[in-house]
Structure formats: structure tokens, C-alpha cells
């Protein structure tokens, strides 16, 4: 993954999704990785 992002949002709750949408609409390149893509579930 050689792309650059302005913001990386960890978590997929309501707050994170709303913030990601707002930042994206304001021209930021946002990465919102899917759950458990970095850490396995407990």
C-alpha cells in the first residue's frame, strides 16, 4: 500500500463514520480500514 492519506480513522462506530464522511466531503483523503484488518478478533 503505497498511497498517502490525510487522515486514517481507526474504528467503525457511528462517530468514526460521521467524522470520515465530513473529512472526505471537505477534500481530505481518508482511510477507514475494515474491522480486524490490523488485529485479529479476541
TrEMBL record:
Keywords: GTPase activation. GO terms for biological process: small GTPase-mediated signal transduction; vesicle-mediated transport. GO terms for cellular component: cytoplasm. InterPro entries: FAD/NAD-bd_sf, GDP_dissociation_inhibitor. Pfam families: GDI. One of its GO terms (molecular function) is Rab GDP-dissociation inhibitor activity. The keyword Transmembrane helix does not apply. Gene3D superfamilies: FAD/NAD(P)-binding domain (3.50.50.60). SUPFAM superfamilies: FAD/NAD(P)-binding domain (SSF51905). Belongs to the Rab GDI family. This is GDP dissociation inhibitor 1.
Amino acid at each position: 500500500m503505497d498511497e498517502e492519506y490525510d487522515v486514517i480513522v481507526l474504528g467503525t462506530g457511528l462517530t468514526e463514520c460521521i467524522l470520515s464522511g465530513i473529512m472526505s466531503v471537505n477534500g481530505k483523503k481518508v482511510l477507514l480500514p475494515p474491522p480486524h484488518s490490523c488485529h485479529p478478533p479476541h
